[in-house]
Input
Amino acid sequence: MFPELNELIHLEAFPNDDFRWKVMTLVGMSIVGTFVWDRLCVALFAPKIFKAQLDEARHAKLTRTRTKPASHPSARAFLRPPDPACVRAAPRVSRQARNTSLADMMPAVMSLGKVLGVMLLLGTGNLLLMGLAFMAYKRLTAPQPQQPAA
Output
């Protein structure tokens, strides 16, 4: 889509469709395997959370099967009665959204800035720039000396 970007990060086209499907199958299997492994770890190390997830899935399935199916699949969403738990939770969500400040979002913004900075740094391939960035990081994360009280 962006030839300059592809060249910058050394992306190449797949040699043939057979290879492409093999890679896509492996990626799909990796995603499914990661999901299964995540659920297994939650079941083993956090059984209360796993039980809550199962209860929520059962509740969602029950509410879907209790409603009469409409003639058209997209009409089902409009004809289904709203879930009372969701209706009760709606004001709480909007109150939380109103109380969100810029300070609450700063950790996510800082993480995004770091990721973009690293991508820019690696995209240039300049070792001197990488060294300067490491020195700046060390200087920023170094403990500050205590000022003597006067």
